Amino acid sequence: MPDIEIKRGYEVLPDNNVRFGIRVTNNSNSAISDVEVILDYNESLFNLEGGKIQNLGTIPPTVPRTAKFILKPLGCIHKEEISATVRYKDHQWKKHTEEMRSKEVHCVCPFLKEKSITRAEFLRLSNSGYLEERGVNFEGITVDKLVEFISHTCKNRLYKVDEFPIENGKIIYLAGDALGEKAYYLLTAIVKEYEGLTQILLRASSDKNYGLNGFLNEILDNLRHLVVSASAREIGVIKKEHVINIIDSVVQRSSFSVSDGTPSVNVQDSVVQRAEIKADEERKKREGEERKAKEERERQRKLEAENKEKELQKQRAEEERLKRRNEEITRLQREKENGRIGLEKEAKSSGGKWFVGLIIILAVLALGWNGTQDSSSSVTPQKTTPSVTATPVMTAKATPSAAAVVPPSADQKTITNSIGMEFVQIPSGEFDMGNKAGRFDDEGPVHHVKISNVFYMGKYEVTKKQWQDVMGNNLLSFKSGNLPVEMVSWNDAQDFIKKLNEKEGGNKYQLPSEAEWEYSARAGTTTRYSFGDDESMLGDYAWYYANSEGKTHDVGQKKPNPWGLYDMYGNVEEWVQDNWHGDYNGAPTDGSAWESGSNRVARGGSWYCYAGDCQPEDRYGGTPDNRDGFIGFRLLRDV
Question: Which run of H or E residues covers position 221?
Fold first, then answer.
């Protein structure tokens, strides 16, 4: 039997990306070290997020470790094999290499037929559902020729709803139905000349949250082959925000029509340029405002932290005084108990049983009277009367044991804002952040974090009704307003926060940091989950792969954690404020967000996660404009 066992599997995510997992289990009797997994894939069919080599470090006997890769398909993928190589050293430092058996991968890609609809219906449908955008610059080809190529690429699959000229270009509306499904797929194509290049800007929309990525990539892939045959060449990909700005500007103006339904459009290049410039200026203005607001929040936090530290010092001094006082009470009670036993023996030896009873009653009354006096003079908020066993009083700030659950304090507050969002007060405290079991490198090293400030955490994930109340739109069509919002990027969450702060007045709302999120999820416990180590109980607290039926559910349907927070382990993963880092080396220890990097972090499990990925230390990294059907967010509110 080989030293290691290799298992592999994959799943197609809602955005059509492929999550490929390779699990390595050490079957030997000794630890193996320097374990590396090298992925082998077709780079012409996939883009890999991150590096192709993952280091699993040292693996003890019988322990499994998993390498996870995110592959972005560049088109429809059918029966494409992915393999890998695993390298490691045994206990004698000998090097070994094992080849993983290949795994076939298939990606969702819609098969379409023409869908005949009116232009008005097209515009109505394109303003709802799910969206994906792409943009490419070409050189050496005219607008008309590129329009002809698009029409050829989409022939027999998409119905041409409309085509009309704009200044220096054309706009085309195309519509199709997915074969075997009740789903529509729409394509808006804008082709225009800009600074000597020919731009193609594509927007796909559908009422399904899968297949859009493959749909657009397949069209662009076919288009690239056709363009190459015409001796033209691709110059570069257009930034997504510019694609969105130009499409929105042109489509908004093209939706006006005269009485006979003929479009009356005259979109000048200057209009598009102004839209881009204006968007850039607004972005810079917004960033400046957000930077000032952040600096003010940091100043306030620093001031509050200093005040809290003073309060904590006073509280610790008071706790120490109470501890010494309780120890003195214990000592006195033991002395009195010993004195009572001595009297009882003396009375028994003299034969006076009635006298023994009287002495015992008097001793108990004396102890009760003294205990009452001690309790009434104490300033402890628990109002605890020391018992005969004289157990010292433990304050609410005591460190919990490994299986302990720290409940909310009796005066823990819950507040509700103007749109009905509920927030639970989270106490200050300290905890060890990360996974001591060392499942994955990005969950360690474990480090001690001190949360100095009290804050409010959202009782539930932000819902679709709350999104609509703040953002004023319903791009995310839904059946129930209490479903958690999903298919929102980190940037979308920031836009929601900005508008909510404007609505409420001030800058009280933000995304929690990773530390604040994990501290709230653990709720003062140190077990695998806040309810203990038993994975079989997860279904009582979370919607995850085993019970979700492949979809989100209304918030608050499962049991809360000990601090009254719902859906922390499932339903949707939640964006936090931090940038993505491969591990916690260099992470702040004061509970603040770690903001130095390009990607962002989401925490917690979701409806599609297995139980092992629903633990409080589980992390996910993605670009700030990434939208997935399993990611939403919840808010933190300052005190």
Answer: helix 212-229
